[in-house]
Design goal:
Layout (H helix, E strand, L loop, with lengths): L1 H6 L5 E4 L1 H10 L5 E6 L18 E5 L2 H15 L5 E6 L6 H14 L3 E6 L3 H13 L4 E4 L3 H5 L1 H10 L3 E4 L2 H5 L4 E5 L1 H16 L15 E6 H6 L6 H6 L2 E3 L1
Parallel strand pairs: 1-2, 2-3, 4-5, 4-6, 6-7, 7-8, 9-10
Antiparallel strand pairs: 8-9
Helix pairs in contact: 3-4
Length: 246
């Protein structure tokens, strides 16, 4: 698809996610590229630096690596007795290995065992939850990826079916019944990307526009789901929530 866009040609390419950004950068050094959201641009080499990206690429980071570890902390805070945590993610995404490393580091610091569940399609998701249930995992952190987002309802439903404490990377999961989410506001990132596009069309060079970080991180908690898990959210955690669904 990236090659097709270059051959049209288009005036600018907007990407969402790491694979799309890498694909676009691989086929053009001339057409401006705005990353509406990317996990960690430095980790995958699409920009030279955040302050001075250089070349034809700029955009917004979703701060995914650090947040992957933070969600494990939130799970432990929500239920201190957890001992085993899984990480559900498409490990074929170049941004996933650093997120898994962050999950491992935080889990180790908290005295938890951690295991990745590599999912590449919907069948993998279903099979992962069979293992999660059979092996009695206490908690699960879901990574951000096009696959997990497209299957949000399925993942939330399976997490509920197996009664596993689950933290999600975006509030869209909680809106369909997930327990809690912590991550950037993706609509806010897209809105800010539009501002970058406007600057480029007015003459700015992408490489001169710093890659921006999220300014709005949301903790959303679903108390209805907590009740089905026999979970009483600690008051300190509840007080920090940006939104509580009752």
């Amino acid at each position: 698809l990236a090659t097709e866009l270059v051959h049209l040609p288009v005036d600018l390419i907007v990407t969402r996610g790491t694979p799309a950004a890498k694909a676009a950068k691989a086929v053009t050094e001339m057409i401006p590229i705005v990353m509406a959201a990317i996990a960690e641009p430095l980790d995958v080499g699409v920009v030279a630096s955040l302050a001075h990206p250089g070349g034809n690429v700029t955009g917004l980071s979703a701060f995914a690596t650090e947040l992957a570890g933070k969600r494990v902390e939130l799970l432990k805070e929500a239920r201190p007795s957890i001992a085993r945590v899984g990480f559900l993610q498409n490990m074929g995404n170049p941004a996933s290995p650093p997120q898994w490393e962050a999950v491992q580091a935080v889990a180790k610091a908290l005295g938890l065992s951690a295991e990745p569940f590599d999912v590449r399609n919907t069948n993998d998701i279903a099979n992962a939850f069979v293992r999660i249930g059979n092996d009695r995992f206490d908690a699960l952190s879901v990574g951000i990826d096009a696959l997990t987002q497209a299957n949000a309802k399925t993942i939330v439903s399976l997490a509920g079916e197996h009664k596993v404490l689950t933290a999600y990377p975006a509030r869209e999961f909680v809106d369909v019944g997930g327990l809690l989410s912590y991550g950037p506001s993706y609509p806010d990132l897209y809105y800010r990307a539009a501002g970058m596009i406007d600057k480029i069309f007015k003459g700015a060079k992408p490489g001169d526009l710093p890659v921006e970080q999220p300014t709005k991180l949301e903790l959303v908690i679903n108390l209805k789901t907590a009740k089905t898990l026999a979970l009483e959210i600690p008051p300190n955690l509840l007080a920090r929530a940006n939104e509580v669904i009752e």
